[in-house]
Design brief:
The complex is a heterodimer of chains A (about 110) and B (about 120).
Chain A: E1 4-7, E2 10-12, E3 19-25, E4 33-38, E5 45-49, E6 53-54, E7 62-67, E8 70-75, E9 85-90, E10 97-98, E11 102-105
Parallel strand pairs in A: 2-11
Antiparallel strand pairs in A: 1-3, 3-8, 4-5, 4-9, 5-6, 7-8, 9-10, 9-11
Chain B: E1 3-7, E2 10-12, E3 18-25, E4 34-39, E5 45-51, E6 60-62, E7 70-75, E8 80-85, E9 94-101, E10 109-112, E11 116-120
Parallel strand pairs in B: 2-11
Antiparallel strand pairs in B: 1-3, 3-8, 4-5, 4-9, 5-6, 7-8, 9-10, 9-11
Classes of the chains: A mainly beta (about 110), B mainly beta (about 120).
Amino acid sequence: DIQLTQSPSFLSASVGDRVTITCRASQGVNSYLAWYQQKPGNAPNLLIYVASTLQSGVPSRFTGSGSGTEFTLTISSLQPEDFATYYCQQLNTYPYTFGQGTNLEI
Amino acid sequence: EVQLVESGGGLVQPGGSLTLSCAASGFTFRDHYMDWVRQGPGQGLEWVGRIRDKANSYTTEYAASVRGRFTISRDDSKSSVYLHMNSLRTDDTAVYFCTRPKTGATRGLDVWGQGTTVTVSS
């Protein structure tokens, strides 16, 4: 199975900060990588797909980049509603896998 | 409104069986693959499996942790997908989410249900 490693696992930041989360794959996944945001008690919400395409309705402060084995999710200016857990997922090779998550907190 | 609603969760003993259901509405169900994802208590997300559409012969894929114990099926006439779980173990305890992949199958899961909780315990 393809392992996805997110860094950092925990990130403390403030409103207005620019933050970057990295997702590294144990083998290449082309650009078939998605990012999700999950708030406590809720289902995840798709933010980015095929590495860099913004899902409809997601604010433009979220950007994704990368291909192959290294990917990043950047939030340009943190808003209060952005404090959540973020997951990457590869959809290149079955079984699909998720990263362990990055908990973004104040 | 596009919606997925799971049901069927509950408490089951180790070694037991349970079937989860997911009712879809607001989109053409038969044209979409469907996935199941689970999340253990305080844990991250784990992809469980996928069922493809009729055009792709309803074929399935599974995570190694559930292969041979779990089976995904669907009934397009009822716009429903099912997760049949056998030989349940304590580490199958989780919230189970029904999800819809975006068209193209490799572009992420854009619709999620609210989840149903399965607890495996004696």
